[in-house]
Write a structure and sequence with these properties.
Helix content of chain B: 10-25%
Strand content of chain A: 25-35%
Structural class of chain A: alpha+beta
Number of strands of chain B: 25
Distance between the termini of chain B: 70 Å
Radius of gyration of chain B: 25 Å
Largest sheet of chain B: 8 strands, mixed
Number of helices of chain A: 7
Radius of gyration of chain A: 25 Å
Helix content of chain A: 10-25%
Shape of chain B: globular
Number of helices of chain B: 9
Oligomer: heterodimer
Strand content of chain B: 25-35%
Shape of chain A: globular
Number of strands of chain A: 24
Largest sheet of chain A: 12 strands, mixed
Largest interface: A-B, 66 and 69 residues
Chain lengths: 611, 619
């Protein structure tokens, strides 16, 4: 049996890093306190011009239309109240009951090399019932000291019918409540047993109350011209399968999500929204066996928000050109020295290196490294740098943000959360699992259907109060190169994702996977290289930030962790890092195909045109 | 016709007659595939020929350093599925799927006669995915250049795996001292049958959904029930099989099926489940709505009766298996033993039990009562006027389907074989179906037909049961009318901890629990029992079939590739989905009376009763 995965991954499409670690006793050692650390370089000679950030927001209460509420919400409330009445007077009383029904329509269209390879349109409803027994101070969700994984709730698709037939819906709510209540009572038995034999440790409660919310927005509509999209994708993927690429694909995913949430505190929430995603991807295996791929994605609230063909053509041309260059690029060597993380790459970097460690529940988990637990109120980054997370942001500098939501998956209003204020750590992303000094949720309890919620990121924003022009940043990089006596500096323009280990059983390290990495030589020459990862430890990485650019870029994507995949964004200026550690990436021991590709020009084609 | 037929055939072509027809072809046939056309197959065949002649590992000087493939085969499948599930009159799932896949199998062997010793039927330790098989998806629009490229890629991948597997097999034989005089694989004549097999179109998703909704309404307002559902599916699988012997065959499998299932709890907390399941070639082969509504009612009434029913007690004596009970006996105690394919080297003994093996050395010996006949016939599609779904034109190794007389007058005549020969069976009889680890097909049952002379009326059969019970000093006899089916009833009630505990202590050699079990007393009175589990059923019980009924039940089902327990505890139909994958199978059997069967109380499945009454009963 393995411990629950505690390595988080961020991915554009499908990359997720998950590992486990052996269970057993954990010796907690606190992080070294700041006074012993060398002072952080504050870069006070940088110009006091802030990075440009213009945002639009939509408050959780916007769009409330009580008339739009589905009768489903009412049936959920009736059944919730009826069950709670009984469950609260059992020998093991339930003190909290939450219902979430998610109806999700997912349309996927994929074309590869000019032909449609996937055409699916499916709608599913999922029911999640959360029952808590015991008390907020100690309930069934308390991790066992020697966690064997068996006390976690069973991951199971909760069946609930479509439509709003009260008998059918209520029967399934009742059934799932009964299953989850019995499961919770069983869990609590083991929790109690565990607590009796443990030496007492002071620990914050397991659950925090939240204000009831009544909210209903109109049920959204998903509108798109399927035939036109199929043609667009076929054309796009035909254009993509060229040059070195052996795979060229274009795909869209459109979603219509409607979420009904009811809990025993009196919340009744109906949220409904669409989202759309376009991906352009090319890939090839190099002669030395390394799998290369280059992906560009765009997100929008509706299919109509996705870029027009002229922009898609540019995306294709970019990934194709990059892939061709990568295919010819030399393998890089391990390196330590100055580097620039360009906007989106800096966003991903912050998401991995900082964001996952600032998720509140990790600060109380004994098996977690609790990197930032003791740093509240202390400087961890230059004083011109601030970071916050705000799911109520709709756009940033005109770009739609993927991490927008009104209410989280625990019925709590989405909130702007300051995390680093002028270099000082001030907050954590919080769900309803309290930690010392942070007794309540700030609306970041998130999950995919079927999994329990934990604290997660939404729209992470890195602000810089002192910035330089992008060209100046590169000059500063070369100055650092000279100062450090390095042959070159590095510039990263695209990071595909990565993972960060927060488990106490392993080093508190991160690894991110740059796709486009350049060496910049003192004479200004740029050289693309491949086969490397960026590694390091978070505290040192944050302290090594020396300067930021004026421009902000946004990374939109989906993030995977123990509560499943959730949409997120990360916006950041380009950053100059004094010292970044570059590791050799893993190149699988493979070889190219034995025979050359078949003579495809004679194969004939419905789609026309050979790659 | 094209490049496919020009392949490297050492044998003359054999043309298979279109003997495999659908029983009820009234609905209009669906048009031929637009995803897999002649152009696609030609492109794949072209690549196959190129790989057969050119694919080999070479050193820097261009000299081969390992054998090239001696046999390459491709299976292209196009699957279309419509299915829907409803509960209490409302849809809980509705899906339509359409995908195309290409699978390549490459065999490499030691020269000069690679058939003697090749890579296959061997499980690489720690690498059961290394089996000389590779697959990937193809577009749903015919695009030859993508098909050709995909064929190139899967062949390359499969070839590299096959080389590794061969090396590992040779090493293992050396270290374990394993020797075998049996060849690894048998040559077969080429078969060409390229006319599309047209089957009736799938029932529409809307029609399926409406029917599921309508039938599932029958479970409304039943306070005794916990969960219920009606799941309906329709699917087709078009197949194209090409190999380097020159075989080029196309065939289509088509099935429609339904599952009605409901659960309840006994007064002492024991979990109770009942189901009704039927599959046919089209919805026309399934019972009418009127009949199905009766089944919904019967399931409800049975569950209510089971809530109060006494628990089964230990019993050792005669048992009458009626209807689906007899089908269950054939399916769980006989069918797994009929494969004549040697199990892969390296298979662990526990896994090996899934493949039976009790009859391996018994060909020519008595294995059943004198009056028992057993035939497995994939060439037929009808029995007793009912559609069978277990048939096909050629098997998964490109061998024409054959009718096999398995047991004649109680004597074992032949097992069901594939191209991996055993000592007894040197040739395939066209039964390669179920896959094993190590990338092999195991000889498996298709349409398994049990018959017997001397069939009697039900009344006479019960009298014989009672007489046999009396001889044993028993006060009653036992009738079993149904076994559980893990493809239908899953285990959503259990917590993670409970599931783990059940898996730990489960006896994988047992058949599934019996779901309809009755005591029958000398006065003919029947008493329903709950919680009954048959003990391990040794193959020798078939020698003591002491009575058979008149007539036979035709029962179609999808055999799960996993074991009963793996399916049950590993999720199965947790999300309420309708089973639409598995190995299409049929059993035809009369009622069967066995002289001695051991029965014991079912030990698992007890849980606390709900503390909140159902919303229906609270009304």
């Amino acid at each position: 049996m393995q411990n629950a995965a505690r390595v988080m991954g961020l991915a554009l499409a499908s990359t997720v890093a998950v590992t486990g670690c052996p269970g057993g006793g954990v010796v907690k050692t606190g992080p070294k306190l700041i006074p012993d650390d060398p002072p952080i370089d504050q870069g006070r000679d940088l110009p006091t011009v802030a990075a440009k950030i213009v945002t639009t927001t939509s408050l959780p209460t916007d769009g409330n239309d009580p008339d739009a509420a589905s009768p489903i919400l009412g049936w959920m409330a009736v059944e919730n109240e009826r069950s709670m009445k009984e469950l609260a007077r059992q020998p093991e009383p339930a003190y909290y009951l939450g219902y979430q029904i998610v109806e999700q329509r997912v349309v996927e269209l994929d074309a590869e090399g000019g032909a449609l390879i996937n055409d699916s349109d499916e709608t599913a409803r999922n029911l999640d019932v959360e029952v808590r027994v015991g008390s907020p101070a100690l309930d069934n969700t308390r991790p066992l000291a020697d966690d064997d994984g068996l006390n976690a709730p069973r991951t199971r698709h909760g069946v609930v019918p479509f439509g709003d037939d009260p008998d059918a819906i209520r029967n399934h709510l009742w059934l799932e409540t009964d299953r989850r209540y019995r499961e919770a009572v069983q869990q609590l038995t083991y929790v109690r047993q565990d607590q009796q034999t443990l030496k007492a440790r002071k620990r914050p409660p397991d659950f925090s109350a939240a204000e009831p919310v009544i909210y209903a927005e109109k049920i959204a509509k998903l509108e798109f011209d399927k035939a036109a999209w199929v043609e667009r994708l076929k054309r796009c993927s035909r254009r993509a399968l060229t040059g070195a690429a052996t795979r060229g694909s274009c795909s869209v995913t459109f979603q219509l999500n409607t979420v009904w949430y009811v809990n025993s505190e009196g919340s009744q929430i109906q949220q409904s929204y669409t989202n759309a995603q376009l991906a352009v991807s090319v890939g090839v295996k190099t002669d030395d066996g390394m799998g290369l791929s280059r992906l560009e994605q765009r997100f929008g609230a509706t299919p109509a928000d996705l870029p027009p063909d002229s922009d898609v053509d540019k995306m294709v041309d970019t990934v194709v050109a990059d892939l061709n260059d990568l295919n010819d690029a030399p393998l890089a060597e391990p390196y330590v020295g100055p580097a620039i993380l360009e906007g989106r790459a800096a966003g991903v970097f912050f998401h991995e290196v900082f964001g996952h460690r600032i998720e509140g529940h990790r600060q109380k988990d004994d098996t977690s490294g609790q990197t930032f637990s003791s740093y509240i109120g202390k400087p961890i980054a230059p004083e011109w740098l601030s970071v916050y997370d705000d799911p109520t942001l709709v756009t940033l500098n005109g770009i739609q943000l993927n991490g927008f939501y009104r209410y989280d998956d625990e019925g709590v209003k989405a909130q702007h959360v300051p995390l680093i204020d002028k270099g000082t750590l001030v907050g954590f992303e919080m769900g309803r699992n309290p930690i010392d000094g942070f007794p309540t949720s700030n609306g970041h309890g998130r999950k995919a259907p079927g999994l329990p919620a934990v604290a997660r990121q939404g729209n992470l924003v890195v602000e810089a109060a002192r910035t330089v022009e992008r060209a100046e940043l590169e000059k500063m990089l070369l100055a650092e190169v000279k100062k450090q006596g390095r042959p070159y500096g590095m510039v990263f323009t695209d990071i595909s994702g990565g993972f960060t280990n927060t488990s106490a059983f392993a080093p508190q390290a991160f690894k991110v996977n740059p796709v486009m990495a350049y060496r910049i030589y003192p004479d200004g020459k740029r050289q693309l290289v491949r086969g490397i990862d960026i590694g390091g430890t978070p505290l040192i990485a944050l302290q090594s930030i020396r300067a930021a650019s004026r421009e902000i870029e946004t990374f939109n994507g989906v993030c995977g962790a123990e509560s499943g995949w959730v949409p997120v964004s990360a916006s950041a200026p380009s950053l100059l890092i004094e010292k970044l550690e570059i590791e050799k990436g893993y190149i699988p021991p493979d070889r190219g195909p034995i025979l050359n590709p078949p003579n495809i020009t004679t194969g004939g084609s419905a789609a026309g045109g050979a790659p | 016709m094209n490049a496919r037929s020009l392949a490297l055939a050492a044998f003359s072509g054999v043309l298979v007659a279109a003997g495999h027809q659908l029983a009820d072809a009234k609905p209009p046939p669906a048009p031929p595939s637009t995803a897999v056309t002649d152009d696609i197959l030609d492109a794949i065949a072209k690549e196959m020929n190129r790989d057969m002649t050119g694919l080999v590992v070479r050193d820097a000087d261009g000299n081969p350093t390992a054998p090239g493939p001696y046999h390459i085969s491709y299976k292209v499948t196009e699957v279309e599925v419509n299915d829907a599930v409803a509960s209490l009159g409302q849809t809980t799932a509705r899906k339509t799927r359409h995908f195309v896949n290409i699978e390549c199998r490459v065999r490499v062997g030691l020269p000069p006669d690679p058939y003697k010793l090749d890579n296959a039927n061997y499980i690489v330790p720690g690498g059961d995915g290394i089996d000389g098989v590779a697959s990937r998806s193809l577009p749903i629009e015919a695009t030859p250049r993508i098909a050709e490229r995909a064929a190139w890629q899967v062949t390359d991948e499969a070839y590299k795996e096959a080389l590794y597997q061969l090396q590992a097999k040779l090493d293992a034989r050396q270290t374990t001292g394993t020797t075998s005089t049996l060849p690894s694989w048998t040559p077969e004549p080429a078969i060409v049958s390229e006319e599309p097999v047209l089957v009736p179109a799938l029932e529409s998703l809307d029609a399926i959904e409406a029917r599921a909704q309508k039938l599932s309404k029958g479970f409304r307002n039943q306070p005794a029930l916990r969960d219920s559902r009606v799941a309906i599916t329709a699917y087709s699988e078009r197949r194209w099989y090409l190999n380097s012997e020159g075989t080029s065959v196309t065939d289509t499998r088509r099935a429609s099926g339904l599952v009605i299932a409901a659960t309840a709890q006994a007064d002492d907390g024991q979990e109770l489940a009942q189901y009704f399941s039927r599959y046919g070639q089209t919805a026309g082969d399934l019972p009418s709505d009127e009949e199905l509504t009766k089944e919904v009612k019967r399931i409800t009434e049975t569950l209510i009766a089971l809530q109060k029913a006494p628990k089964a007690e230990p019993y050792s004596g005669p048992v009458l298996f009626e209807g689906e009970g007899a089908v269950g006996m054939v399916r769980w105690s006989l069918a797994p033993h009929l494969g004549g394919t040697p199990l892969p080297e390296g298979l662990n003994p526990q896994q090996a039990k899934q493949f039976g093996g009790a009859l391996t050395d018994r060909v020519g010996l008595r294995v059943a009562s004198n009056n028992v006949e057993i035939v497995d016939d994939p060439t037929t599609s009808i029995a007793a006027g009912k559609a069978l779904i277990g048939g096909y034109k050629i098997d998964d190794e490109g061998v024409a389907a054959q009718r096999v007389q398995v047991v004649k007058a109680g004597m074992l005549k032949s097992l069901l074989t594939s191209r991996t020969p055993s000592a007894k069976d040197a040739r395939s009889n066209g039964h390669a179906r179920r896959t094993t680890d190590g990338g092999m097909f195991h000889g498996s049952a298709t349409n398994l037909i049990v018959s017997a002379t001397g069939g009697t009326t039900h009344q006479a059969l019960v009298a014989r049961l009672l007489a046999a019970a009396k001889t044993e000093g028993l006060k009653y006899g036992i009738i079993i009318r149904q076994f559980d089916d893990s493809a239908i009833t899953a285990a959503p009630e259990y917590s993670r901890r409970e599931l783990y505990a059940m898996l730990q202590r489960a006896d994988t050699d047992l058949p599934p629990p019996a779901t309809l079990v009755y005591k029958v007393y000398p006065n003919g009175k029947e008493e329903l029992l709950r919680g009954a589990q048959l003990d391990e059923i040794p193959i020798r019980v078939w020698k003591d079939v002491i009575g058979v009924g008149k007539g036979a039940l035709v029962y179609n089902y999808l055999a799960a590739p996993e074991s009963y327990l793996a399916n049950k505890f590993g999720g199965g139909t947790d999300d309420g989905a309708v089973p639409s994958s598995g190995i299409e199978s049929a059993v035809v059997t009369p009622d069967l009376l066995f002289k001695e069967i051991d029965l014991k109380p079912l030990t698992s499945g007890r849980r606390a009763k709900p503390v909140v009454s159902s919303p229906i009963s609270a009304k």
